[in-house]
Design goal:
With 176 residues, the protein is an all-alpha fold. Helix content is 75%, strand content 0%. It is built from 5 helices and no strands. Helix 1 runs antiparallel to helix 4, helix 2 crosses helix 4 and helix 3 runs antiparallel to helix 4. The longest helix has 37 residues.
Length: 176
């Protein structure tokens, strides 16, 4: 098995892993944009559908009712992929990932089977996307802080020789 040098890794993560995590972060950002689009569609079409002139328009009602559901449902596969990447690279505790995805799935499936509604289950998927965004942000903040700390250590002239010469240059022991 070939030995991988420490220079090719960034704080224990291979460049391919960093690239995969950044890709998952971009996918999560797309999911969040879809969530924002669902909220805006709900507000816009709901407002238009509530106007008396459009009160009986079935197209507006369907856009108000179904478009936000469809947009949030599109985020579910993206969020599951993000969860797998977070689990693979241990960016969060596995129990947190399982709990967030598991509870959201149970609420969605239970709502569809027993209550004939999906709003609560889809609302819980909103939270999962934002939880994963926080995980990605925390991970890249950690990498940035570690990089800054390493740069500070390499830029300081405090080497072993400098520390040994410091007492010799002290003027405390010199007598006039």
């Amino acid at each position: 098995m070939p030995i991988v040098s420490d220079q090719s890794t960034q704080h224990g993560f291979a460049p391919l892993a960093i690239a995969r995590i950044k890709g998952a972060q971009r996918a999560n950002q797309i999911a969040i944009y879809l969530i924002y689009a669902a909220i805006i569609a709900f507000m816009v079409f709901g407002t238009i559908a509530s106007i008396k002139a459009f009160h009986d328009n079935q197209l507006l009602y369907r856009l108000f009712f179904n478009l936000p559901y469809a947009l949030i449902a599109l985020t579910i596969p993206i969020t599951i992929y993000d969860g797998l990447v977070i689990y693979r690279y241990r960016l969060s505790q596995p129990s947190m990932i399982a709990l967030s995805i598991g509870v959201s799935t149970i609420i969605l499936v239970g709502g569809l089977l027993f209550a004939d509604t999906a709003w609560l289950g889809l609302a819980s998927w909103l939270g999962v996307a934002f939880l994963f965004r926080a995980n990605f942000k925390r991970f890249f903040s950690f990498l940035e802080a570690e990089t800054e700390a390493e740069e500070d250590l390499t830029n300081e002239p405090a080497t072993a020789e400098a520390l040994q010469q410091a007492p010799k240059e002290s003027s405390i022991d010199s007598n006039p």
